[in-house]
Amino acid sequence: MGAAIRSSWTTRSGTASSDRVHLAKAGAITAKTLTLNPNGTTFRGLWQGSTQLVPGRDYTVSGNQLTLTASALTRLAGDRAYGTNATIQARFSAGVPWNIYVTSYDPPVLANSTGNTTDGLSIPTRFRGDQLATLESRYADGSTAGNTSWTPYQEFNVAFSPDYPNNAITLLPAYLNALNDGAQVTLTFHFWSGTTVTYRVTKNGGSVTGTVA
């Protein structure tokens, strides 16, 4: 990030529509397409470290559509362990390269959480290679639940926060204290792979319970 900021003082850098290609661990590997955003530069190719990927065999470019082939992704994914399997770079004629992380995942699994207070609710979570993007929070009638009232999408690190080292998602006091007593809330956790997982939370006084939907 620091290199990108310094580079932006004098030139633009190319990017892509995402910095991550997700491969479902249990599924067949297929070609994946990203949209390049050259920002006035010219795309020069893909590299893995000092090794240049081969156009036509490893990837194709049509207009600004960059497609990584199934064979290249299979090689890059290796044994398909959860998380980042390989890092490649899209390089342009100017600016800093754009990293693309080849990632294997399965749908995350959440578990029930009891004995919590409004000081914080920790939801046991097996992320299984995926990463949390955002949280959608609604009451049974569809209205927004939480401290961010104008949208059901709650604020990262204010209403909720992932705790990857401890395999948990934490619902924070600002969010929990804003919930209506006794009203079940449906949470939809959105992950960067596109996977969504539904969960239920109910606050009664100072206690909070979380259950798998």
Layout of secondary structure:
Layout: H1 2-8, E1 15-16, E2 20-24, E3 32-37, E4 43-48, E5 51-52, E6 59-62, E7 65-68, H2 70-77, E8 83-92, E9 98-105, E10 109-110, E11 113-117, E12 121-126, E13 132-139, E14 160-163, E15 168-171, H3 173-176, E16 185-191, E17 196-204, E18 207-212
Parallel strand pairs: 2-9
Antiparallel strand pairs: 1-3, 3-7, 4-5, 4-8, 6-7, 8-9, 10-12, 11-18, 12-15, 13-16, 14-15, 16-17, 17-18
The helix/strand class is mainly beta
Instruction: Summarize the amount of helix as a percent range.
Output: under 10%
Biggest pleated-sheet summary: 5 strands, mixed
- Quote the beta fraction: over 45%
Strand order of the largest sheet: 2-9-8-4-5
Order of secondary-structure elements: HEEEEEEEHEEEEEEEEHEEE
The radius of gyration over CA amounts to: 21 Å
What is the helix tally?
3
What gap, in angstroms, lies between the N and C termini?
38 Å
User: How many strands appear in the DSSP assignment?
Assistant: 18
Shape: elongated
